[in-house]
Amino acid sequence: MKELRSKQAIQSLLKTISQKTRSLSTPISIMEVCGTHTMTIHRYGLKKLLDQAGIRMLSGPGCPVCITPNEIHEAAIGLVTEKKNLLLATFGDMTRVPTRKNSLQKIVPAKDSQIKIVYSPEEALGLARDNPETEVVFFGVGFETTIPSILLSVKRASEEGLSNYSVLTALWIIPPPLKAIIDDKDTRIQGFLYPGHVSAIIGIEPYEFIPREYGIPGSITGFEPVDILLSILSILEQIQKGKAEVTNEYSRVVRQNGNPAALALMDKMCSKEDAHWRGIGSIPQSGLRLIEKYEDIDTEKKYGLRIAGGSGDLPGCLCGEVLRGKILPPDCPLFGKKCHPESPVGPCMVSFEGACLAYFKYDRTERASE
């Protein structure tokens, strides 16, 4: 770990990156798809150093809290405020996302209902086991990284006959929104940093359409400073050679075929569907839905909910623009003024992986025009 955070190694890589960019038209726009990459880049001061080297880093749609439409949050709020004796379990960040109906953190639950923060789907399942007379709804949000664990809780609930457990799903697949971003002609991306955790599940192949069809290079990377700089260097070398591909700079974790067991579980228990992403809109085959066998554990079907995304951000909030790489967080007129971590207007200021929170915490004075 020390080697991956070595000041000497970081300085050496930045020097090499600067040498590479001298022969290229700069700035080179690279999107870090994963929110954890965003946090690493800002935490270690790489953003400004990369700017100086001719690399413009853009945040992408790699934060599940951020891209979940308001309507799904509002459905969760509706359940816990209207249904008696219901326990809504979810991850902490989800409780703070503001919507037209306020946030889960600020609403008043119905009689004998409550909201409980959990750290895993298994913990939510345990609540259903321990409280058989209470309806337990797990607000399950995530990408391919966490989807298998959410599905395991569904599988176990089905096998154990836990009729009081269901999952309000918001399950997203990473590759399709990248295509949507590329197809948006207003966004010019010259390289992608692909998420290491997601790639540990899905492998390398799902990204290969990007260099093949669009000629855009990319690299799978880990979450330490040296990881990220090695992948940026790989992207620059691809640009220099005029040969785009997907390189794997996180081979200590990511394998060519990913995690076959996790992929098999998703294929067996879910079907793909068109899904609405905050800031991007409806993206074909970008979401997962539990198959009919598990419809009794699908909260949306169990309670007859009708959820349709599309309302967008709250007035003045530009989270959607940030998630598409259209703007940097400081370009939003609410950033650091009306919108800050203690009183967020949008989810990008809520989530630990949110770009706005990263900028606020580490680069508050930065402006895109600088």
Question: Can you give a write-up of this model?
Answer:
This protein folds into 2 domains: 1-309, Rossmann fold (3-Layer(aba) Sandwich); 319-362, no CATH class. The chain has helices at 7-21, 35-43, 46-52, 64-67, 70-82, 121-130, 147-160, 175-183, 196-202, 209-214, 225-241, 260-269, 299-302, 319-323, 355-362, and strands spanning 28-34, 55-62, 86-90, 114-117, 135-142, 165-172, 191-195, 218-221, 246-248, 270-277, 281-290. Helix 2 (35-43) runs parallel beside helix 15 (355-362) and helix 6 packs parallel to helix 7. The protein starts with 6 loop residues before the first helix and ends in an 8-residue tail after the last helix. The protein is of the alpha/beta class and 370 residues long. It contains 15 helices and 11 strands. It is globular and about 65 Å long. It has a 6-stranded mixed β-sheet, with helices on both faces. The chain has a 5-stranded parallel β-sheet with strand order 2-1-7-8-9.
Keywords:
globular, six-stranded mixed β-sheet, 11 strands, five-stranded parallel β-sheet, 370 residues, 2 domains, Rossmann fold, alpha/beta
Give the overall average pLDDT: 94
- Show unreliable segments: 366-370
Classification by helices and strands: alpha/beta
CATH architecture of the largest domain: 3-Layer(aba) Sandwich
Number of domains: 2
Number of E strands: 11
SSE string: HEHHEHHEEHEHEHEHHEHEHEEHHH
Q: CATH top level of the largest domain?
A: Alpha Beta
Tell me, what's the shape?
globular
CATH topology of the largest domain: Rossmann fold
The CATH superfamily title of the largest domain: HypD, alpha/beta domain 1
* Order of strands across the main sheet: 4-3-5-6-11-10
Cα separation of the termini: 33 Å
Gyration radius from CA atoms, angstroms: 21 Å
* Number of continuous helical runs: 15
Helical content band: 25-40%
User: Major sheet, described briefly?
Assistant: 6 strands, mixed
